[in-house]
Amino acid sequence: MAISLAKGQKVDLTKSNPGLTNIIVGLGWDTNKYDGGQDFDLDSSVFLLNADGKCSSEADFVFYNNTKGANGAVEHTGDNRTGEGDGDDEQVKVNLTSVPESIQKIAFTITIHDAETRSQNFGQVSNSYVRILSETNGEELIRYDLGEDFSIETAVVVGELYRHGAEWKFSAIGSGYQGGLGSLVSDYGLNV
């Protein structure tokens, strides 16, 4: 049974699941009833961070237009432009044993495409979650439902995988950002 996390909680991933190497990080969301005349397009992005919490290069920014990072250990499986239907809207595969030592954290984020132009924000998004599954047997190991804490934010850092000695842990972050993807990219040390 999956461990349900609350904002700010941290949990062992590999220590409590010995032999776990390949995981799927699933991200999901729904949009509330909205009459702004524009479609919603939410995107998941992954930032591969060094010990200083920064990306070393643009190659460490994994998203629908750069689907592989960490020498192939991290793979974004593709863009979902509507968010319709049940289950994960977007997924990221991670081979934990192949992630280079230089990468200490893997941050998972969700942003709203063209949020400012379309006057959209996370106050219009509900049922956001992140979950971690074993790729081998599909078992859900960790789940974090973000709740409805956002209003004017256009980007959310949902959680981080991070090294703790020889193990990997997961931290439920749930921090909202204004400024969309641009502010995240800048905060993580890139000028894309």
TrEMBL record:
Any idea where the TerD domain is?
Answer: 1-188
Recorded hits in InterPro entries, A to Z, give: Stress/Tellurium_Resist (IPR051324), TerD (IPR003325)
So which domain of life are we looking at? Bacteria
Family note: Belongs to the CAPAB/TerDEXZ family.
Q: Indicate what this protein is called per its UniProt record.
A: TerD family protein
Task: Please spell out the taxonomic lineage of the organism that makes this protein.
Answer: Bacteria, Bacillati, Bacillota, Bacilli, Bacillales
